[in-house]
Structure formats: C-alpha cells, structure tokens
Amino acid sequence: MPRPIVVGLDGSRESLAAADWAAEEALLRGLPLRLVHAWEGLPSDAADLPELDAPRHWAWRILRTAMDRLHEKYPQVPLSGDQIARPAADALVTANAESELLVLGSRAFSGIGGFMAGSVASATVAHAERPVVLVRAGTTTEDERLPDAAGRPSAVTPHRAVVVGLDPANSCEELLAFAFECAALHTAPLHVLHTWQLPYMPAAAEAKARWALRGAATRRLDRVLGPWREKYPGVELHALTEEGRPAQRLLDVTKDADLLVVGRRMRPAGGLGAHTGPVAHAVVHHARCPVAVVPHP
Prior knowledge:
globular
C-alpha cells in the first residue's frame, strides 16, 4: 500500500496553503492524502465534560472544512482525515514516519509564534525520519511556475527550478534522490549548489587560492553528480559552485525557485536530543519558497 502525503492542520492560513500544496503533490505522485489535526484534549474519563464541547467542535470543524474544500478542488485525490488526541509534535512525528512526506504550514520571516511556525514545526522537523516540506501562506500554483510571455502569473507555464544545497563531504544519497525525483515529477530544472569559503590568508595569495578552491569544489560536485546525471537524463541539471556562506547563498539562489531542498543529519541512537542544523534552520525561517528538509545519516 502506498505511503500517503500527510498534512498537519491547525486552521491557520499557513496550514491551508500547505494542504493545497500537498494535494497538488499527491495528484502529481498518484498518492493518497491524509489530513491530521492534533488536539491533546483531556483523559478519556473526562470526555463528557460540557466544557470540552466547544474545543471538540472547533477541532472537528477545522478538519471537516479542509476536507470538503480539498475534495471539491482535487476530486481525483484519495482523501482521509484524522483527529489525534496527542501533543501536536508527537502526533506529527509519528504521522511523518508513516508517510511519503509530511507538509506543514510555516510563517515567513519569523522564528517564533504560531502552531506550525514555532516550537511544533521545529520539534517535528528535528525529529522527523522522512522528508518534511514547509509551505508559506499565500503560496499558489502560479508561484511555482514561470510567468507567461507578458510577465503575468500563469498556472500552465513550466515550473521554476528546484534548488538543493549540497555538501559533497557528507552523505547525500537521500538528499539527491528527493531533489532529482521532485525535479523529474515537476519537469523542472534542478540547481545543485555547493558553496566554499576562502580561509584567512595574505591578500597577495587570495587570487590563486580562490582559483584553486573553486576548481576543487567543481570537481567534487561533478564526481557526486555523475551517477545522477545518468539516472535522470531527462532532468535539466545545473551544478553551481559559489563562494560564500551556505545559508545566504541558498537564499540568494532560491528567490525565484519552486522548491528548496536541504538536508538534516540524523543523530545516531543514544545521541543527546535532536537538531535541525544551522543551514536548514536559517532557510526554513527565511526562504520565500517551500522548503523540504530531508533527513539523512
């Protein structure tokens, strides 16, 4: 049975945008879509308390309204919905483990506040075993595509580029597999960005060192991408090696992107806590396009 695409709902504009994005992706991939609304609630022995009627009704309304709306817009997508009486982050991490990918709403340019923009999203991304995509409010089909010949938004023009940030020194199989598959499904160009930085040195040596470092970075990236070029010959691939800090360069490159893909290193069993990593943390809070965070060893 195929894994579904899962959406975390909280009734916000961000989570509704995430639901639309996820439905389009489910349609493209031929996968079912599952909506999840997590409500911790109270123990079962208090389930009949009158004071629970209002929050219970609101929780059901969030789920039912989203399901009705998506069923009308995407009747071809198999759709299901669940209310889960657990803390939101725990419920979403569990749902992620059973999904093809998890999609959450995320507020732009903010690291705090909001159900899906703050601690819940951060905890979910930091503990997820499978990819998580974060989508901004107001994201539309037209945003994912190039403007038409007159410069107007269009839902039928080619997709904008998928961008993936890559460090060839680390494991990147899962990251590249996700990025290439997205580019192939969307018939979009794929830009693979590897950054490098010039260490401190006398000014007289900088030009030669910069030339050498750029050449070495290009060769490393070409070696990693060689097998993927053969596996996905139909993907328009652009290998980019640029000087600078990874997060800032990724934000620069993705100003007009369809999707940004970054990795998150999973800590081994027994490691202390979980983390997102500085690059993923920065782009999740500041990128304008949807961001996919892909866990890898």
